Amino acid sequence: MTSIPSASEPAVPAAAAVPRASRRARPALSAAGAAAVLVTLLTGAALPAARGAAHGAPPPAVPAAAAVPVTAMVGFATVDALGRNGTTGGAGGPEVTVTTAAELEDYAGRRGPYVIRVSGRIAVDDMITVVADKSILGVGTSAEITGGGLQLGSTTRPGNNVIIRNIRFTGASDDSISVTNKAHHVWIDHNDFSGGHDGLLDIKRESDLVTVSWNRFHHHSKALLLGHSDNHTADVGKLRVTYHHNFFDGTDQRHPRVRFAEPVHVFNNYYRNNALYGVASTENAGVLVEGNHFENVAHPVYVGYDKSGPGRVVERNNRYVNSGAPQTAGTVVEPRTYYPYTLDDPAAVPAIVTAGAGVGKIGL
Predict the structure, then answer these.
(1) CATH (domain of 106)
(2) Which of 17, 68, 151, 343 could form a disulfide with 59 if both were Cys (CB 3.0 to 4.6 A apart)?
(3) Ranges for the Pectate lyase domain (predicted)?
(4) 203: nearest Cα among 257, 134, 126, 136
(5) What is the reported pTM?
(6) Does 220 reside within a domain?
């Protein structure tokens, strides 16, 4: 597989305080953007990956008007591997609407494909286990899971081929979503995460082939963990994840914090007012940080963090506004080895992401 060489590592400034900018109103969608948003994916079936540049050179930036439609699945969730050709969720199965925790737990744990529509606010006590071949889709703009979260898979029942979209997750007693126990082919898209006890979205324990796209993370410290612990070396060769067009809105850290995984593709995300850091690559992980917009982030990228050993990072075509310099090291496998994609101009990322990320943007 092709590896990307890193640039020489620039010095990172001392941990000076970065002023937190006031929150701005989210811009309205353009007519073209609104038309794209109205395209729906009612069954939870996978859409084709966006067509990207030819293998070998960084993909060209494109203007905001030509941005990837916000309903398109891109990244590792589209890959033909591990016995699955992409991620389809519950497509082809019965469609049900749930309004209580008991109903959600029942259908999420049933054998076979289901399209599960979450209507209104559902309070749960703990983690609800989601097993294979499920689409869990919020209805309208008010779907919410609060007090607990969703765990994809158990040690005996895999959580493969799962789609979660258009749901607000608040106040989880543990993680809001945990992708774990070797779950693979997962798409987590257009959700809103805030105020949990631990991680907002953790991917760990040999899970693989995941796309995290068009989500908003806010009012929390630990956003995204990728890799269970420094001792869980079984994650080597797994945890291939794409993070794109997410809005890290004032969250402190882990956007993501990565152990062992390669490649991890972090592209076209909007980082704003992140107090501790943006991305951390540790324990020999290989991370490509590409086409992102960092605003008021003193430490956009770390190589190694806390007690974890250094990872590898290649950064290219990012924009740093009132932010520090990224750390880089080593080489990383090129994501285009696995899938095509189109890169948006990082200068346009704040407008694109704030208009398209979060709930109520996809007409489910």
Answers:
(1) 2.160.20.10
(2) 343
(3) 91-300
(4) 257
(5) 0.84
(6) yes
